[in-house]
Amino acid sequence: MTLLGHPLDLRGITLPNRIAMSPMCQYSAGPDGLPHDWHLAHLGARAVGGAGLVIAEATAVLPEGRISPRDTGIWSGAHVDAWRPITAFVAAQGAVPALQLAHAGFKASTYWPFAAERGGVPDADGGWAPVGPGSAPFVPSYRTPRALDEAGITAVIAAFAQAAAYAVDAGFQAVEIHAAHGYLLHEFYSPLTNHRTDGWGGDRPARMRLALAVASAVRDAVGPDVPVLARVSATDWVEGGWDVADTVVLARELAAAGVDLVDCSSGGAAPHADIPIGPGYQAPLAERVRAEAGVPTGAVGLITEPEQAARIVEDGQADLVLLGRELLRDPYWPRRALAKLGGQPHWPDPYARAF
Ligand code: FNR
Prior knowledge:
The protein has helices at about 35-50, 75-90, 150-170, 185-190, 205-220, 245-255, 285-295, 305-315, 325-330, 335-340; strands at about 10, 15, 20, 55-60, 95-100, 130, 145, 175-180, 230-235, 260-265, 295-300, 320-325. The strands form 3 sheets. The chain has an 8-stranded parallel barrel, surrounded by 7 helices. A two-stranded antiparallel sheet has the order 1-2. By secondary structure, it is α/β, with parallel strands linked by helices. Ligand FNR binds next to β4 and α9.
């Protein structure tokens, strides 16, 4: 049986295989970021399909941290109650439910991709003023952020910790800190977006400080037994931006702060980055971080073929593969892939006659 189908231990939790569903915003939440039937069906189908780890979409730790007014949230007891049946169903299929904890920073209050409008959402249409490391918008069509002050930064760190505790209470067995894609934590560590001159900007240690403070606070909030993953943008793909050598340093420090696996994505801080998109294009980033920082990694990005996924794990590029769009096309990809690779995945009993 391919290593892809072998269990993976992360702290107190065992993933049944090394295939994860990458977090994907559905832009379908109800008012106030509450998940509902869509999220149950969407995440539940991928658990039935055999993903070992099902990571729910970027879920805001504060209302102003939503990318769009339709994002899910985890900032109150009502969110805990709404997520609970979803995590229970995912776990009942043998998958591990995880939640991506997010703050969109200066990319908040934007229209969702399938809206008729583009760019920042005005107050009149349910938008709000975003926050960021500075007061320049990401692009002219986005809303102008307010630079976080010391009290605002302290509140963000506390909100990530509280959200992590809510996530565990809601039945999530792992959390992922979203520190990628030009959202708040990435905005702070990238030199392209952080021009602060206080203790939260300047040299690399100062720029990494927010991501590391959030990692420590989340680890404290969930206790010693819950896996904490962190998704990073391992490179900005821009000369003079954040790069993979920086990520090796960040990954080591994230691990020291209690992060168990670094999920290596890329990009998002520079609107015009030239990204060499192709099959498995980010796997070499995961490979280098794993080799040089000595921390478990996840590989993501255009992983679509069973043999390709198996090789990434077998060659030691990553400990986990994460699939996004391929799992939207085919929720059963994990079970089909493991069967194709010689395994005998157990299909849910009601489906057994089809296989
Ligand atoms: C995404 N992606 C994403 N990433 C993330 O960290 N949090 C998120 O909530 C989302 N939301 C999201 C929504 C949709 C509809 C798509 C298609 C993508 C990125 C995603 O997790 C993944 O990293 C990329 O899609 C690349 O992997 P694939 O799709 O090539 O397997």
